Amino acid sequence: MNPLTETPGHTPGDGAEPSRGLALVVDDAPTVRMYHGGVLRAAGFTVEEAANGLEALEMLLAQRYDLVVTDVNMPLMDGFTLVRRLRAEALGRSVPVITISTESQESDADAGYAAGANLYLVKPVAPDLLTRVADLFTAPLPSSQSSSTGSRS
């Protein structure tokens, strides 16, 4: 099994429930999609890919995703526009979005957050960092447990 392209117990397209969730990786560079997708697959995510923001938006409006990892500078629709358009849709308001770009100025990160991104990272992103932040954004919330230790008088 290749950890960069396969997830244990899940064959792409077999309809099996992913163990960690469904992630969408958006980048116009196939090698970057393969890299980010491979990191997420190795962490247990099922990954789908889009080559630009327009393709990604169409996918996001047709399918619920647990995480979006997007580049910023892409043809047809850039990552910031993608995030703004996603946040304008009811089903896209709660999806965690990580923007990853070569643009490293503070103003670039500010623009990402203003668009609605949850996190702005600068390329290259270490695999362990991407895995940790993906885990943080997709971890289930702790359930509230009511404890009954006795009756009240």
TrEMBL record:
Enumerate the Pfam families for this protein. Response_reg (PF00072)
Which GO biological process entries does UniProt record here? phosphorelay signal transduction system
* Segments for region (Disordered): 1-20
Classification via InterPro entries = Bact_response_regulator, CheY-like_superfamily, Sig_transdc_resp-reg_receiver
The answer to whether the entry has keyword Iron is no
What's in the keyword line of the UniProt record?
Phosphoprotein
Domain Response regulatory: where?
22-138
Q: Domain of life of the organism in this record?
A: Bacteria
Q: Which residues carry this modification: 4-aspartylphosphate?
A: 71
PANTHER family under this entry? CHEMOTAXIS TWO-COMPONENT RESPONSE REGULATOR, STRESS RESPONSE REGULATOR PROTEIN 1
Full protein name = Two-component system chemotaxis response regulator CheY
Lineage at the top is:
Bacteria, Bacillati, Actinomycetota, Actinomycetes, Kineosporiales
